[in-house]
Fold:
Amino acid sequence: MPKNRPTLQVKVPLPRVLYKYLPLKYAKELLSKGAIRVSTAAYYRNEEDAGAGRQDATEATRTVKYVAPGPMEFTAASPPPYPVNEWINITEATHWRLKEGVSLSMKYDNPNTLVYCMSARFGQDLMKQFHASACVAIQKPTQFFQLVSEHFPLKYSWVALRQCEYRQRTEDVTENSGLHPVFLKPPEYACEKEWRAAWEPVSESQLAGPHVNIVCEALKRCCRLYCIAELS
Structure:
């Protein structure tokens, strides 16, 4: 393992197989060269880039909302509840007053998070939804992502490999999950049973583009071609 590469930490049980829906061209590159492309969340917000069936204009966003249950006063001695205390600057000279029903909100936006998308299930419906011409079965997902992590540029840090949660992207402060926005998707996408691996840029100034290309020949031994779409 290259120096300065931490061992991949996966904190949740993985499915035995994860399915990657993609164009046949990229499936062949993965299976012959061990080549993959990891894209930013911002890339998936644009239908012209991501393509029909993959575009999500609010990808990697989450809004937390606080509604004052009654007249409220916030001071340094009596600060607002978490995470509202991180949204407003309370000092010794600050005195905030909120009327009942007044709302405050914070939008968490992570357009530069890099994400590799998969599914825990195979289905012809997903082949059609993603306009995919092939599906690759990742049969050794832990080994696969350990290899990807070892070859990832050092200017990105590992976030997680986990399943997406399907609920609205606006949460009440009392329901604030703290979930990274890239793993949050609206309920209408629940049929996808999506899993994601994600990385964050260490510094925004080091961003080089919407994709990171990884080539590791050992990756091809972790997966196989599962399906090719029938020509219509």
Q: What stands out?
A: The CA atoms of residues 136 and 225 lie 5 Å apart. Residues 63-107 form one domain. The radius of gyration is 21 Å. The longest strand covers residues 156-163.
